Please model this.
Amino acid sequence: MAGTYSGGMVRRLELAQALVNRPWLLVLDEPTVGLDPVARDSVWGRVHEMQQQHGMTILLTTHYMEEADALCDRVALMHHGALRTIGSPDGLKAELSSEASLEDVFRHHTGDTLAGEQKGELRDVRATRRTARGVG
Model:
């Protein structure tokens, strides 16, 4: 029963469900959150294999800049719901310096502190969860 699976197993099951019909567009919303490095490598290996075999396009959301850098042909960085920049990982890094990482690019376009942010605080998360429970 899937209800007895660990969080990592559930994430892999969700990926298998998404891949079973070999879609031409695969949308992955943070597919490796909570996975250990071995499981993450396994997920990306399988996704890459399917992409190569079937020519699918993958739209990926992630907070892991190293994943975006390694896996994406194009990156769009968003902050507070607004698109801040778009381009190839190498191109975006080159705009800053020859030593820049994609994390540096993110910080450059979005800031590097959480100070002054009103949304996303613990109170807001709790309120959103209460609202979601009432809807379900």
The chain has one domain: 2-135. The longest strand covers residues 82-87.
